[in-house]
C-alpha cells in the first residue's frame, strides 16, 4: 500500500509541476502586455474559464489515480493474469503525441494572429486525435479476436475500463476541438476570438496525453518495474 501511495505521489507531483507550468497562480493583470490586457478586457471570463478547466483536470487526474491505485492492489490477487500489449498502442501513442504537438502549434499561431497557419494546425490536431481513437478501437478488436475478452480476468477488465474511460475523455476533447476548428474555418472570424478556445484545447490535449503515457506505462509493465524498485528501496 505504501508503494502504491508513493507511485500516486509521483503522479501527483508531475501533475502539479505541469499545472504550475500553465501559470495557474500567476497574476495576469500585473504581467499582461498591452495586447493581452486588451484581449482580457474583451473577454473578462477568460481567467475563470481557465481555472474551471484546471479544476476539471484535477478531478479527472484524481479519478484516474484512484483507478490506478485499484489496479495495483488488484494485481496482488491470485486470479490476475497479465495480457499482451498490442503493438498498435505504440502507433496510437505517437498519434496522440503528434496531435498534442499540432494543437500546441495552433496555440502559438493563434497568439500571433496567423489564421493561414492556425487552420491547418487545428485540422491536423483534430484528425490525429480522431485517428488515435480509431486506433484504440482497433486495438480492442484485436484483443477480443485473440480471446482477451472483458470478463476473462481482472487484468483484461482494467485494461478495457481504463482505455475506455480515457477514450471517452478524448471524445469529449474532439467535440470541443471540432467546434473550434469549424469556427476557425468560418468566414470573418478574427484570431482574437479563437485564442482562448485554442488555448484550452491545447491544455486539455497535453493533459490527456500525460494521462495516456501513465496508462501505457502501466499496461507495458514499466510501472510495475517502478513499484518493484520502490519495494526494494523501502525494504
Fold blueprint:
Layout (H helix, E strand, L loop, with lengths): L1 H20 L6 H4 L2 H9 L3 H30 L12 H24 L3 H31 L8 H32 L9 H26 L1 H13 L1
Order of helices and strands: HHHHHHHHH
Cα Rg:
20 Å
Helix-strand makeup class: mainly alpha
Count of runs of 4 or more consecutive helical residues: 9
Main beta sheet, described? none
Distance between the termini: 13 Å
Helix content: over 70%
List how many beta strands DSSP finds. 0
Based on CA inertia axes, which overall geometry fits? Answer: elongated
Percent of sequence in beta strands: under 5%
* Average of the residue pLDDT scores: 82
Q: Could you name the ranges where pLDDT drops below 50 across 5 or more consecutive residues?
A: 1-5, 22-42
Question: How would you characterize this protein structure?
Answer:
- This protein is mainly α and 235 residues long.
- The protein contains nine helices and no strands.
Task: Using brief descriptors, characterize the structure shown.
235 residues; mainly alpha; 9 helices; elongated
Write a short abstract of this structure:
The chain is mostly helical and 235 residues long. The protein is 80% helix and 0% strand. Residues 1-5 and 22-42 have low confidence and may be disordered.
Amino acid at each position: 500500500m505504501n508503494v502504491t501511495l508513493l507511485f500516486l505521489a509521483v503522479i501527483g507531483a508531475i501533475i502539479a509541476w505541469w499545472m504550475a507550468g500553465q501559470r495557474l497562480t500567476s497574476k495576469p493583470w500585473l504581467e499582461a502586455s498591452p495586447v493581452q490586457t486588451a484581449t482580457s478586457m474583451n473577454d473578462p471570463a477568460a481567467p475563470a474559464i481557465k481555472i474551471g478547466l484546471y479544476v476539471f483536470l484535477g478531478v479527472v487526474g484524481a479519478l484516474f489515480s484512484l483507478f490506478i491505485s485499484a489496479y495495483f492492489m488488484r494485481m496482488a490477487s491470485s486470479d490476475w493474469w497479465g495480457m499482451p500489449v498490442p503493438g498498435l498502442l505504440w502507433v496510437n501513442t505517437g498519434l496522440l503525441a503528434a496531435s498534442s504537438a499540432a494543437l500546441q502549434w495552433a496555440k502559438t499561431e493563434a497568439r500571433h494572429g496567423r489564421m493561414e497557419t492556425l487552420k491547418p494546425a487545428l485540422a491536423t490536431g483534430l484528425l490525429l486525435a480522431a485517428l488515435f481513437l480509431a486506433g484504440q478501437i482497433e486495438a480492442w478488436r484485436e484483443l477480443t479476436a485473440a480471446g482477451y475478452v472483458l470478463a476473462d480476468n481482472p487484468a483484461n477488465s482494467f485494461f478495457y475500463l481504463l482505455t475506455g474511460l480515457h477514450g471517452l475523455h478524448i471524445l469529449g476533447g474532439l467535440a470541443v476541438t471540432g467546434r473550434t476548428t469549424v469556427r476557425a474555418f468560418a468566414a470573418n472570424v478574427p484570431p482574437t476570438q479563437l485564442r482562448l478556445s485554442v488555448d484550452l484545447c491545447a491544455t486539455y490535449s497535453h493533459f490527456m496525453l500525460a494521462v495516456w503515457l501513465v496508462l501505457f506505462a502501466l499496461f507495458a509493465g514499466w510501472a510495475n518495474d517502478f513499484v518493484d524498485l520502490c519495494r526494494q528501496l523501502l525494504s
